[in-house]
Known about the structure:
alpha+beta, 2 domains, 7 helices
Amino acid sequence: ELERRVAERTAQLVEARAQLLELNSSLQQKVEAQLLELERHRELRRYLPPKIAERILKDGTEFGRNLQRKFMTIVFSDIRNFSSITDSLEPEEIVQLLNEYHSEMIEIVHSYGGTLNKIMGDGLVIFFGDPVDMDDHAHRAVHMAIEMQRRVKRLRKHWQSYGHDLGIGIGINTGYMTVGNIGSEAHKEYTVIGNQVNIAARLEQMAGAGQILATQRTLSQLNGAVQAEPMGEIEVKGIHSPIKIYKIPVF
């Protein structure tokens, strides 16, 4: 009788242990799924306007997992002579000015549905056309750039109180780019790469304070909505043919 009871109790304990292990595994899977969802939400919020991020989360759309070749528009912007400005300011003042500048610019980026790819000190990289497809990506990019320059004119008064003048240069290009999560398993970043990206970066470097430079390919997508001034041609490493560039007016 004792042996039978011991055997029954042992069987009960074994079954209880198995149930606990199964429950623990289920809980662990749920926690991992929730953590992945939180990470996905954080990533979307980092790059996208809140409304677009919420829509992607609701629809369950994949975000940057697979590399794609897509026809998109990319924008580079940078504060001109920023190093000379920082030389005469305290770190706290630099942070305050940059925070104000970035807040204003990011608000504009989001209002046009752009994807904020990078903040590099005083520089911004924005693209249009992923993760949400849009036929008017070039139109959005150009009008966003114009609005950014207009906003900077208003910010300039505050910067002048510190004894400095604020001005940004912007470069825009449209073409086929590779977009998605790029990097190692330890660290991946959602970004774009390719020659068309390099062209936009080159235009930004050439643009003076208050200027927007764009390629002919970008302007061709606007159907004459913007009258730009021809600025000649440039040679870009990795591109066989010269690139025609234009200056977009800011009113």
